Amino acid sequence: MGRFLRLIFVLLVVVSPPLLILALRSQAAPGTAAGQSRIDCNTVSSRVLGQGIHYCVLLPPGYDEAVASHSAKRYPVLYFLHGLGENEQTLFETGGWNVIEDLRQQHKVGDFLIVAPEGKRSFYINSASGKYRYNDFFMREFMPYVETKYLVHRDRKSRAITGLSMGGYGALRFAFAYPNLFSAASAQSAALMTESPQELNGALRSGTPLGRLLGNVFGDPIDVPHWQQNDPFLLVKKNEAGVRRLAIYFNCGDRDEYGFEKGAAALDQQLRAQKIKHEFHLYPGNHSFNYFMDHLAETIEFHSRAFESK
User: Fold this and answer.
1) For residue 199, what pLDDT is reported?
2) Residue 54 CB contacts under 8 Å (≥ 6 apart), including other chains
3) How many beta carbons lie within 10 A of that of residue 293, not counting itself?
4) Distance of CA 21 to CAs 62, 109, 130, 283, Å?
């Protein structure tokens, strides 16, 4: 149980160095000319959550020209879910922007939007209490909003999802819960927990802020039916036919201080047992933003190939 408390601690205090919040609204990529990639940051008002939720979108080269000319062109969309303690700007303000631009300059990826919503500490699910319904917001409000506001295709083959740590959990859960809505899913260092709800209750009984973090999402004590409804491992079994249609990629560091490599290995083993095609890598590394950046290009290339193959 001590390892799990350390796991929650790293999620709470952030897996990366402190981030400087930058004004990213409608900025052009460094060193690029007008009309090339830019980032658009905005806020969507959520009736479900009763508050505004921030988001940022990386728009590909030529997007503004397509809008200005009223082009019929539409793009695929990749949703990126950040880790706990991070925000919608994390991917773009910590070097991810440059990695993606380099891939495009080298013609290693095609053009698609990358949409990063603010996820707070939600694990991207409805809380057990029903007070904070992030899943409902994302499915009923945010995705329809993106597909109305931006020039994106509104079909499964052009919609994918990825994430880091807490966001990796969220990405896999969304894809396994709604395989009819996504064509591909990926995760890096996903917060896949192999402990049973009964084991996790020890963290709650400790009475610390770390335990309360878990309780705020999954219940205190753990709401077992709610946990099972959101468990990526169980969702693979429940929706096996749909999951088989997904392109799936995930990786993890072999020295993850918080044991996420065990969850990744368990998912790999389960998918193998169910004969579900996927790509899994256990790389040298720990649970850090440096590890994530080292393998970001590989993740983005995976999604580009998946979009092109549909």
Assistant:
1) 82
2) 41, 42, 43, 87, 88, 117, 118
3) 17
4) 27, 28, 30, 30
Find, among 94, 60, 111, 278, the residue nearest to 186 by Cα.
278
Output the pTM of the full model.
0.91
**What confidence category does residue 200 fall into, taking pLDDT thresholds of 50, 70 and 90?**
confident
Residue 267 in tokens: 């998912």
**39-88 residue pLDDT tens:** 999 999 999 999 999 999 999 999 999 999 999 999 999 999 999 999 99
Tell which residue, 135, 117, 114, 116, has the closest CA to residue 125: 135
Is the alpha carbon torsion for 309, 243, 194, 165 positive or negative? positive
Distance of CA 89 to the CA centre of its chain: 13
Handedness of CA 149, 151, 154, 160 (dihedral sign): negative
CA 12 to chain centre: 17
- How many angstroms separate the Cα of 149 from the Cα of each of 11, 36, 69, 74, 290? 32, 19, 16, 12, 33
Cβ neighbours around 146 below 10 Å, total:
20
Distance CA(223)–CA(208), nearest Å, equals 19
Token digits of residue 259: 């044991």
Alpha helices by DSSP H, listed for the chain, are 2-13, 63-68, 90-93, 96-105, 134-136, 143-149, 166-177, 197-205, 209-218, 224-230, 232-238, 240-243, 260-273, 289-294, 296-309
Q: What is the pLDDT of residues 120-163, one digit of tens each?
A: 999 999 999 999 999 999 999 999 999 999 999 999 999 999 99
Only one residue has tokens 């590394």, namely 285
pLDDT level of residue 2 (50, 70, 90 thresholds): very low
Distance CA 127, CA 120 (A): 12
For domain 2-309, give the fold: Rossmann fold (3.40.50)
